[in-house]
Amino acid sequence: MRAPAMTTLKAAVFFCLVALLPARGHAEGFDTEHIFGFMIGTDVGEVGEREFQSETTGRFGRDGGAYRSVGQQVELEFVPVPNFRIEAGTTFAGHAISAVPGFDDRHQFTWQGASLDLRYRFLEREAAPFGLTLAVEGHGDRIDEITGAAARSYGTDVTLAIDREVIPNAAIAAVNLLYQPEWTHFTGLPAEEQEATIGAAFALMTRVRPNVLFGAEARYFRKYDGIGLNEFEGQAFFIGPNVYLQLSERARLTATWSVQAWGRAAGAPGPALDLVNFERHQARLVFGVNF
Predict the structure, then answer these.
(1) End-to-end CA distance of the chain
(2) CB-neighbour burial class of residue 83 (10 A; exposed 0-12, middle 13-18, buried 19+)
(3) What is the 3-state secondary structure (H, E, C) of 155-170?
């Protein structure tokens, strides 16, 4: 895996250097609210805008066994005032797990929980050197997202999003900085578990047709025991392609796939992959419509 990992790391460095190049102007051709897969852009929509969104996320491959997890989330989005968006959603999850160390074998499909996502845009690209948005998503679940085990789980995903056109109306780059604390109390166990994930992600999207964008996302994560980043557990680097299709004036589709190109679990002998804390493959399909 060493050669592919070096290749993907070089690609990520190249994209970062491109993002730092000065832009010569701004165009109104990009709406970054939904063009990324696992990441977010800084646009939040226009006042009064309402949207329905279906988001399907698949996670595949863990250490030592067969692991497949699919989450189906449906969401309603509304923009009540300028630069502020509210999104409420609910999620169903399916798990097919066999012979994965530390996980019970499980084959189920059930309701997982609900979420509330609040986003505020501090800077607009048209009026500043870059766009800047803070997103805070809280969720409460009745099963653990990773293992599918019965639990009371609460978490918050805090994301700082930055984006900027690097070629007016042709290419746009985005950066996300993430902090994701999680509290989980598994049914039948006396103590609550706490963990946190921090990360940074970069995306570059280019316009290949008037209604088609193509690019890639590169994401790096570090997982810790405790919400205060108490004890390091593992790290992983994901990279993969992303495509956005504007199907009609009101409908859109985003598809993305990421592979873990490099990683290491705490205590592992050397860098290879971290399949203890992260999956080998992650994929997402998002369909949305304005109404």
Answers:
(1) 46
(2) middle
(3) EEEEEEEEEEEEECCC
Average pLDDT for 203-211:
96
What's the residue count for the chain?
291
Determine which helix (DSSP H) or strand (DSSP E) holds 278, and give its type and residue range.
Answer: none
C-alpha 103/C-alpha 145 separation (Å) is 12
What backbone torsions phi and psi does residue 11 show, to the nearest 5 degrees? -65, -40
Three-state SS sequence of 86-134? EEEEEEEEEEEEECCCCCCCEEEEEEEEEEEEEEEEEECCCCCCCEEEE
Task: Please state, in angstroms and rounded to a whole number, the distance separating the CA atoms of residues 44 and 42.
Answer: 6
Domain boundaries, the chain: 2-290
How many CB atoms neighbour CB 26 within 10 A? Answer: 17
Q: Which of 22-36, 169-183, 192-206, 270-284 has the lowest mean pLDDT?
A: 22-36
Cβ neighbours for 218, distance < 8 A, ≥ 6 positions apart: 8, 11, 12, 15, 201, 202, 203, 237, 238, 239
Pairing of strands 281-290, 212-225: unpaired
CA angle (75, 69, 185) in 5-degree steps: 80
pLDDT digits (tens, 9 = 90+) for 128-146: 999 999 999 999 999 999 9
Strand pairing report for 231-246 and 212-225: antiparallel
pLDDT band at residue 227 under the 50/70/90 scheme: very high
Per CATH, the number for 2-290 is 2.40.128.130
The model's pTM: 0.88
